[in-house]
Amino acid sequence: MDKFDLQLFAENASEVAEMGEATVEKQTLTVADKTFTQADLDKILSARLGKEKTKWEAETKTRLEEKEKEAQRLAKLSEEEKQREAFSKLQKDNDAMKMAIQMRDLRDDAVKILSERKLNHKFADFLLADSSENTLKRIDEFEAIYRENLKEEIKNSIPGSSPKTGVSGKDGIDTLLRQGMGLKTK
Q: What is the span of the domain harbouring residue 153?
């Protein structure tokens, strides 16, 4: 007889201890006022697993058929055609590797530029383009928008306005210090 993991549905360990080794027929699970017996759960699970198994088998069969067709096609080719096929495949792989390296280099350059401009490097992936020129253009556009929004937020978050006049020069500072210490000003 199948055992059921009661701990999975228990709210605390004492419930599991009280239930002990319950048999499959007596086990139930209540979900939103609906009770499922073990037989119901087994039926639901079996149906779902059956669907997934059928799906997996179909996908596997399709992949195997494609590989067999490719093997048959390659078997019919002459030695020269096989070499061309192999060369073509190697060239595609090489192009894919070059593209991956180019994208990595573009990302590294974008991270460097963002860091130099004191922008978060996590934006690099969003700003990447197909070339360094286009990536730089995107970074420039992003920086302009980012800086403008930052200025606006700072302006909105600071109440009031900045002082209109300031104290400048040595005489101004001396005067302020003397006033603050309660001394006579010159």
A: 89-157
